[in-house]
Design goal:
Chain B: Residues 2-246 form the ABC transporter domain. The complex is a heterodimer. By secondary structure, chain A is of the alpha/beta class. In chain A, 23% of the residues lie in helices and 37% in strands. By secondary structure, chain B is of the alpha/beta class. Chain B has a single domain, classed as Rossmann fold, CATH 3.40.50. The chains are: A alpha/beta, B alpha/beta. Chain A binds chain B through residues 379-382, 384-393, 395-396, 399-400, 402-404, 406-407, 433-437, and chain B through 45, 48-52, 71-73, 75-77, 81-82, 84, 87-94, 97-98, 100-106, 109, 141, 158, 162.
Chain lengths: 437, 250
């Protein structure tokens, strides 16, 4: 039985095991039909031309976690941003860990999707938002069909979340291979502000495939800052589907720090449903070995006077491969749109590769859109210059690569995240320098 | 300190240095002059260890040790410094952080701990004052958008920070106005001692009014064809290089 059959046939059992809330039940039933019809995407589809799921789909994943695992904080502390106070929503093999978490209902809701799906008091929010941003694409639908657990964050009107929220999904590898499908819902009401840090972390070398869906709603004048830290083990693959709906004058930024696992696909989709919206998409990708990361972005400009800013930097070593596919749609009504996209890459090895493809579909006539992609190598004369000052070649390379990605890092608003990313970069590049530029 | 013996070097199979002999002792200032394309900058790069240049014959000895096999950074750690004719722009790396990294990497190579931040700041303050460099300048990306003069001043600032035993100044005077020239020369002179040495590579005699050489060498067609005292520089300034070429070709 292949993975698709296994999932489809297990759906009934799954749907019986959870409550049958009418709205959610309908959504899930509809979603499994979509998945059954479409199946997993293949390379024949334009959007998947450079990323093949074949190999990772051949693994016999356990679809539902069988047992609950506990972790000691001290063993996983390194994966937390632990030098600042934060709320924490932590999952171990798909199950909520109350021991590692720190949730709240005091003024804001930082809690669990399972609670939101099951408790009557959240019913209205669920009916208004659940699956209202996610696309009908097959992987998102698959997640929807099994949507049961994840982070639920609701910031009511005129509230600033008093501290950042960390959402971490650990997998312990207690099954030889596991499929995880976290489902997160984030609603940020009018004039509110939240900062979220998300991480998927495997703790062993057992195979794990995560197919995650996050829906984010930024209502009028809301500000959402989202940081994704991806630095997983060599057998961990991630398909991250993030959908952001913005209302007027809201600002939503997503920073994706992609240091890879085995295969990573980031589907990041923005829908601008109001005027004077700003959408910010930033990414630093640093890969080695045979890692593969595919950034597939969509910014849909629907209303006039909005902006979008995309800046992705990639550094590819060894036999790693990267993909950047950035689509911008500017609807006819979306006059005075300013849409910027840039994707710069450095290949540090002859065997590494990057496929970069901007796609602009512009139906309005009074817009400013620009895109640029570059693929280059490290500047040899800069390396000699640095060496001549006593900086060894390896460190000089690292410093140049760091400087190359610094544009993206400089817009990170939480210093501790920046420090953490600096450390990961130094580690990834095998150097011991501070990068406190 | 520096002893170059019958040095031949080429780049992409093109022979550029064709038998250089040069000895520089501690406390000395040497000037290397010569027409364009004579190999002056190549000589500087070869001493500093640029990989593209291949030493095909001869050797470079620094403080009694052959260094032509060493990487550029290892030569820097031993005290060789090259001030670039065209300093490279490094966007995203501030002057301060670049210097911090350079100094701490040198210390690491010598088995020393990182320099304490307080000492580093003090050193930076001291040396930037010597070169009359504005504090704001230090937080800018290295050489990015610097004027020609600022770049050169920044080179000597780095030299002051690193305190090399042997400083090679490659066309440091080019692109400098008279005030900047005075500041740069003054910086070099203040750093000068009986234990270190300076090799000034220049096209013109102008800089040598400020940094007075003990010896002047004329490089032509990959060889040192004439050596003399500081008066040789004046002669070259007056008469140009044609008479040297004629002498050599005769």
């Amino acid at each position: 039985m292949d993975l698709k059959e296994k999932l489809v046939s297990s759906f009934l059992a799954f749907e019986n095991s959870v409550d049958i809330d009418s709205y959610v039940h309908d959504v899930r039933s509809e979603a499994i039909k979509v998945f059954e019809e479409k199946g997993f995407p293949s390379k024949k589809e334009e959007a998947w031309k450079y990323t093949s799921l074949n190999k990772i789909l051949k693994v016999d994943y356990s679809v539902f976690p069988k047992q609950e695992n506990a972790l000691d904080y001290k063993d996983v502390k390194q994966y937390f941003i632990h030098d600042i106070d934060t709320y924490k929503i932590i999952f171990i093999d798909g199950k909520y860990s109350s021991h590692l978490s720190e949730t709240t209902h005091d003024g804001i809701d930082v809690c669990l999707m399972s609670a939101a799906l099951n408790k009557p008091k959240y019913r209205l929010v669920i009916e208004n938002y659940f699956n209202k941003a996610a696309s009908k694409e097959s992987l998102a639908s698959l997640n929807t069909a099994f949507a049961s657990e994840g982070a639920y964050i609701h910031i009511p009107k005129n509230k600033i979340a008093d501290k950042p929220i960390q959402v971490i999904h650990f997998s312990t590898g207690n099954e030889s291979a596991s499929l995880l499908q976290p489902r997160n819902l984030i609603v940020v009401e009018e004039n509110s502000h939240v900062q979220i840090i998300e991480r998927h972390q495997s703790l062993t070398n057992n195979a794990v495939l995560t197919n995650s869906v996050t829906e984010i709603f930024a209502r009028k004048r809301a500000i959402v800052d989202y940081y994704k830290i991806q630095n997983d083990t060599a057998n961990a693959s991630l398909i991250d589907n993030t959908f952001i709906k913005q209302q007027r004058e809201s600002i939503a930024s997503v920073h994706t720090f992609a240091f890879g696992g085995k295969l990573t696909r980031n589907n990041l989709n923005y829908y601008q449903e109001g005027e004077r919206i700003d959408s910010i998409l930033k990414g630093v990708t640093i890969l080695g070995d045979k890692q593969h990361v595919d950034h597939n972005t969509l910014v849909h400009h629907i209303e006039p006077n909005c902006e979008s800013h995309q800046d992705y930097k990639g550094i590819f070593g060894d036999q790693s491969t990267g993909v950047f596919n950035g689509k911008i749609i500017v609807e006819k009504e979306a006059q005075k749109t300013n849409a910027f996209q840039s994707n710069n890459n450095i290949l540090v090895s002859d065997k590494a590769s990057i496929n970069t493809k901007p796609q602009l579909e512009i139906f309005a006539d009074d817009v400013k859109c620009s895109h640029g992609c570059t693929i280059g190598q490290l500047d040899e004369s800069a390396l000699f210059y640095m060496q001549s000052r006593g900086i060894p070649k390896k460190e000089a390379k690292a410093l140049l690569m760091y400087a190359f990605s610094n544009n993206v890092l400089s817009s990170v608003k939480i210093p501790e995240i920046k420090q953490r990313i600096n450390k990961i970069i130094a580690n990834k590049l095998g150097v011991d320098i501070g990068f406190d530029l | 300190m520096l002893k170059i013996d019958n040095l031949h070097a080429s780049v992409e199979d093109k022979s550029i240095l064709k038998g250089i002999n040069l000895e520089v002792k501690p406390g000395e200032v040497h000037a290397i002059m010569g027409p364009n394309g004579s190999g002056k900058s190549t000589l500087a790069s070869v001493i500093a260890g640029k990989e593209e240049y291949e030493v095909t014959k001869g050797n470079i000895e620094f403080e009694g040790e052959d260094i032509e096999e060493l990487a550029a950074e290892e030569r820097a750690h031993k005290g060789v410094f090259l001030s670039f004719q065209y300093p490279v722009e490094i966007p995203g790396v501030s002057v301060t952080n670049f210097m911090k990294t350079a100094i701490n990497e040198s210390r690491k190579a010598k088995g020393l701990e990182d320099m304490p931040a307080k000492d580093m700041l003090k050193l930076i303050r001291e040396k930037s004052e010597l070169l009359e460099i504005d504090r704001k300048f230090l937080s800018r990306s290295l050489n990015e958008g610097f004027s020609g003069g600022e770049k050169k001043r920044n080179e000597i600032f780095q030299m002051a920070m690193l305190e090399p035993k042997l400083a090679i100044l490659d066309e440091t005077d080019s692109g400098l106005d008279i005030d900047a020239l005075r500041i740069v020369a003054n910086g070099v002179n203040k750093l000068k001692s009986n234990d270190n040495a300076v090799v000034v590579i220049t096209h013109y005699q102008r800089l040598l009014d400020y940094i007075v050489p003990d010896f002047v060498h004329v490089l032509y067609n990959g060889r040192i064809v004439k050596s003399g005292g500081k008066e040789l520089a004046h002669e070259l300034e007056e008469k140009g290089y044609d008479w040297i070429k004629e002498e050599v070709n005769a």
